[in-house]
Design a protein that fits this description.
The chain is of the alpha/beta class. It is built from four helices and three strands; from the N terminus they run αβαβααβ.
Length: 132
């Protein structure tokens, strides 16, 4: 009898989990399913949050990794100074003048840094005797 109740409860839990998953919607996506063009060969990478120094480091590192993957990537700060990025016509002209296929704008949502410190065990206990 207990086994049957366990199976029924397990089945109900699975149904609830499946029903909950049915309502999942993707709000942001890495890929546009409607895009049918060729792969991008040249991108401008722009970080849009943080200090100027953080954005520049981010754009450099992200561009480096894209170039390592075979995509020609240019950090956005090399294309336009930070104060000019708010000027959309100037920004569009600079991207078109570079011949870039697209602009990759990235905003860091969250960064988790976890540190675990484990003290080294004390190698010797207090010794008694002539050598302690």
């Amino acid at each position: 009898m207990a086994r049957r109740i366990t199976r029924i409860l397990f089945g109900m839990a699975m149904l609830a989990a499946l029903a909950d998953c049915a309502n999942t919607a993707i709000r942001t996506a890495w890929i546009d399913p409607g895009f049918s063009g060729p792969p991008f060969r040249k991108l401008v990478v722009v970080g849009i949050q943080g200090t100027v120094a953080d954005r520049r480091v981010f754009e450099d590192v992200f561009s480096y990794h894209l170039r390592a993957a075979g995509v020609d990537a240019v950090p956005g700060y090399q294309l336009l100074p930070d104060d000019a990025k708010a000027d959309e016509p100037r920004w569009n002209a600079a991207v078109e003048g570079l011949g870039a296929d697209g602009v990759l704008m990235v905003r860091l949502v969250r960064l988790d840094t976890r540190t675990q410190i484990s003290p080294a065990p004390f190698p010797y206990l207090h010794r008694w005797g002539p050598y302690g």
